[in-house]
Amino acid sequence: MKVLVVGSGGREHALCWSLASSPLCDKLYCAPGNAGIADVAECVAIKAEDVDAIVAFAKDKSIDLVVIGPEAPLVLGLADKLADANIRAFGPSAAAAELEGSKGFMKDICAKYGIPTAAYARFTNAESAKAYIREQGAPIVVKTDGLAAGKGVTVAQTLDEALNAVDDAMLNGVFGDAGAEVVVEEFMAGEELSFFAFSDGKSVLPLASAQDHKAVYDGDKGPNTGGMGAYSPAPVCTPEIEQQVIDRCIQPLIDGMAKEGKPYRGVLFCGLMIDETGPRVVEYNVRFGDPECQVLMMRLKSDLLPVLVAACDDVLDTVDLRWHDQAALTVVMAAKGYPGSYEKNTVIENVEAAGADDDVTIFHAGTARADDGSLRATGGRVLNVTARGDTVTAAQARAYEAVDKISWEQGFCRRDIGWRAVEREQQK
Length: 428
Ligand code: AMP
Ligand code: GLY
Prior knowledge:
By secondary structure, this protein is an alpha+beta fold. Helix content is about 30%, strand content about 30%. It has helices at about 10-20, 50-60, 70-75, 80-85, 95-100, 105-110, 125-135, 160-170, 240-260, 290-300, 305-310, 350-355, 390-405, 420-425; strands spanning about 1-5, 25-30, 40-45, 65-70, 90, 120-125, 140-145, 155, 180-185, 190-200, 205-210, 215, 220-225, 230, 265-275, 280-285, 325-335, 345-350, 360-365, 365-370, 375, 380-390, 410.
């Protein structure tokens, strides 16, 4: 089969790495890819959001399967346009991608189909939103309806914070159109969990659990990022919780979306809050998490390619997934200054040697090769140093051993990725 992966981050490197190892994969392309992806796929210079150019390329090369990594092209309708061109696309339609593209849509679907989530109200008027916030009191959560590059959510501990968030979104235009509507919701306490499942619109094939670290500094402090590291499995996800997540938060969503005439095909990323009442949905994303995908791919034993094809062809119930028993953990190396401004084009050395161990794989998230052959950092999140181990503690030790072999003066990473799981393992 000829396969095209769309995207350029660590997630797409992990997907390419997994797909390239499939005996069914004859040719692998990635648009636009990065320096690490170039080792396993042919990179083509088309941006992920350039939907028409991707469709034209897929037609020209007679691609058998397009795997869409990020949410932006999904929300723009890439899967629909590929379907119109009779090209198999892994990823939901634009209508189904509204689950991530509109918080209000997602909350309404949960309410309609009885899926547990925080109580909420939607507002297109700032004064009404503020009146509601005053009535409810803090802590409270304010979310822009639309996509705001992960920055549209304010978990407000005080009333002032919440009222300011409404002003920023609705009056000051800080998030552009994304903030024209806001969702105000109940604050949920508990431990967060990410759970992933494939769907063909009808059946559900659970993957595995993972947990990421969004805050930029050790101890989960500092501003939020796309994710500074992740590990799988997440110990908070006991077999009982997993079954509750599938029965209460995933299957009813898939059934509901089908009833709405918006069948969900692709991978569903369910963000959850776990407390003594069980799981409640924080959010749905219509794609793999990044860097959660990297640890899932490290643990996956099965051939990924036929599973993705089965999801596209509505025969997901004919396949299964096998996993390594081992845990996996990834440490994100980022450019100093991220998630604020940072220097670009800095030189990184010794990446290959650092990844020489069989149980270590270094996925590239933001790299390019300079003319002189040197490896350069081109983004905020740059490398994902990923390792397997019998425990999260062992995987963590192996990952940091590899991190310490990499020479990159302008880079940094958190030193405590996986701390919750490591603490739990020490208590045993
Ligand atoms: P979201 O983009 O909806 O996932 O929100 C980003 C982050 O904000 C989540 O990962 C949670 O840590 C936090 N968050 C969102 N909604 C809530 C809520 N209702 N209660 C507590 N924390 C929340
Ligand atoms: N790591 C969280 C996300 O991909 O949204």
